[in-house]
Amino acid sequence: MVFLTVIWRASSHRCKIGCYLCRSGMAPTIKRHTATGRHVLLLSSSTVHGSDYLEFASGEVNKLLQQCDVSCILFIPYALRDYDGYADKISAAFMMWGYKVNSIHKAKSPMEAVRNAEAFYVGGGNTFQLLKTLYDQKLIEPIRKRVLEEGVPYIGSSAGSNVATISICTTNDMPIVYPPSFTSLGLVPFNVNPHYLDSIPTTYMGETREERIQQYHEIPGVPPVVGLREGSLLLIEGNTVTLKGNKGARIFMPGKDPKEYETGSDLSFLLKGMCS
């Protein structure tokens, strides 16, 4: 079996209706990869209230790493500025489960570190800063190739989940730096909104997350968005997507009403892509 992976290339996409992606230079090229070539875990957050770092997701994280025979993880700390402090925190968490962690910022060659990685863990922080640094280090294509073509596991949390998708257009973060493009790794053909919050009636008069995502979907040609509540995560294996964790998710499809899904739901329809 094969699945379709969206790799963003404006040059090869031709849309009959002149969609937003064509006009903005963000249109997709569809490449084919074997169904066994994708092992991706996207977490809404690294921590939920009352638990330790990654504790809520420990079962899924360990299961994925064990089935892929991983002993050492390459950590990408670019979403925060204190690389050393961040790496120490991540190393301590994974060490409890028996994994060694190498942080990419300590490597003589980040490119070589990516080429030799057994698995990737991309932590949360500021999504714009994370994506800009990945572009600055010329790591977008190498990471994508290792995950989609060579089956290297990818675990993302918050900002790390954002950059795994089509674009970072549905992040909650402030644009403290300016990446050369909002187009991200494209490991899956949809977007996510981590830390998704439901609307609660208060005196607050600002826009809700749902309203902001619906505004995004007013632009022709943009992809579905998964509102991932804290405590929820997506497991993508080959051409299958499963909602995991202890919270449900709210999925927004362009032109349709949002729909709720409970944990354990099969969300594989999200891999069908979005443009022809």
Summarize the structure in words:
24% of the residues lie in helices and 22% in strands. It contains 8 helices and 13 strands. A 7-stranded mixed sheet has the order 5-4-6-7-3-10-11. The chain has a 4-stranded mixed sheet with strand order 8-9-12-13, with no helix packed on it. A two-stranded antiparallel ribbon has the order 1-2. It starts with a strand and ends in a 15-residue tail after the last strand. Residues 1-35 have low confidence and may be disordered. The chain has helices at residues 20-24, 58-67, 83-95, 110-116, 127-136, 140-148, 159-162, 209-216, and strands at residues 2-8, 28-34, 39-43, 72-76, 100-103, 120-122, 154-157, 191-193, 225-228, 232-237, 240-245, 249-252, 259-261. The chain has 276 residues and is α/β, with parallel strands linked by helices.
Low-confidence stretches: 1-35
Number-wise, the strands total 13
Compute the separation of the termini in Å.
Answer: 21 Å
Mean pLDDT: 86
How would you sum up the major sheet?
A: 7 strands, mixed
Spatial order of strands in the largest sheet: 5-4-6-7-3-10-11
Query: How would the global form be characterised?
Result: globular
Approximately how much helix is present in the residues?
10-25%
Order of helices and strands: EHEEHEHEHEHHEHEHEEEEE
Helix/strand structural class: alpha/beta
Separate helix tally: 8
Estimate the strand proportion. 15-25%
Radius of gyration: 18 Å
